[in-house]
Amino acid sequence: MGDLARVRGVSALHGASVTATDLRGAAAMVIAALSARGESIIHDAWHLDRGYGSFIRRLRAIGAEAYST
To answer: What is the pTM of this model?
Structure first.
């Protein structure tokens, strides 16, 4: 297959509890959570704060309901 990845998605995403293991993975989880129905909880999200300054504030600025505990 080489340089090609074929992905067949689902009709809808649903909120879930997930664990971030690295910065890029955590960012991908946030993107998925923003498009999912319901609430998602991302554990170990400290990767985001370390890699992207003011991440929660930026999510709120685009209308997301985001908070950190």
So the answer is: 0.79
